């Protein structure tokens, strides 16, 4: 099982010149920042890392050219204001808020924002995206994945995926955001990766969206046993699929067919049951509801209390006080 994705460095700055290059080199690729602007030109930068995923918002008030001889990861640029000209494999693409542009590992990166403009830049470690695809399919994949040079953001899954990226950026302004909880960050990171794979054409896309075969009961039982043994662990669907020795999609279909729920729903209900049992046995003078919730993997106390009341008809604090 993978360690939970811990939210990494959050960087926010208004800068230019060498300082901007340092930020780009640190969070993205080794790049050169061409056409130094006048002294008043500024690049406003806001970046967060969630393990293998980096999402940054860049606002350009002057002309700039970003060039990397060879990208070392998957990169998606989503303009949010103005336009950006990109070049991939000798072909030029001009993108605005309705279009995203991509670069694959090994591609030269060339971006020329047409100031004033702003964009969201998503960097995904090569191994992470290809491992996510392999887990979804249940077999190894040959990379790099042939993401298109550009794709439309105005509708369908790609539009939904772009909203997820914008949500991540919007949450950076809130210190108490769930995005800073490792358990939430883990699932959010996986959602971004799998969402991209489902949103754009590539050679594995048809297989990815085809109906999945349900995993056999014996394999599903391996996942159930893992959950029942350690429901407090930060399992992802991919973790459970590896334990069951099947693809993520077969695991999900197997749970739906044999249990009538998703793997994550089963995990959630198992955690609620364990929390209920712990509260019933606990001494209210020694234990708090918050401690029990966190013990069983619930990061948000309010949502835990709501789900608990729906399941058991009483609040967690009522259950705890009844032990007195």
Helix-strand layout with pairing:
Elements lengths: L6 E9 L1 H11 L4 E3 L8 E8 L2 E8 L4 E4 L4 E16 L2 E5 L3 E5 L5 E17 H12 L12 E3 L3 H16 L10 H18 L5 H5 L7 H13 L7 H8 L3 H12 L3 H19 L7 H7 L5 H12 L3 H6 L3
Antiparallel strand pairs: 1-3, 2-5, 3-4, 4-9, 5-9, 6-7, 6-8, 6-9, 8-10
Helix pairs in contact: 2-4, 3-4, 6-7, 6-9, 7-8
Could you list some keywords that capture this structure?
3 domains, alpha+beta, Jelly Rolls, 324 residues, transcription, HTH_AraC, DNA-binding transcription factor activity, Arc Repressor Mutant, subunit A, transcription regulation, DNA-binding, ten-stranded antiparallel sheet
Structural features, described:
Helices cover 43% and strands 24% of the residues. By secondary structure, the protein is α+β, with helices and mostly antiparallel strands. It has 3 domains: 190 residues, Jelly Rolls (Sandwich), CATH 2.60.120; 50 residues, no CATH class; 56 residues, Arc Repressor Mutant, subunit A (Orthogonal Bundle). Strand 3 and strand 4 form a beta hairpin. The longest helix has 19 residues. The radius of gyration is 23 Å and the shape is globular. 37% of the residues are buried.
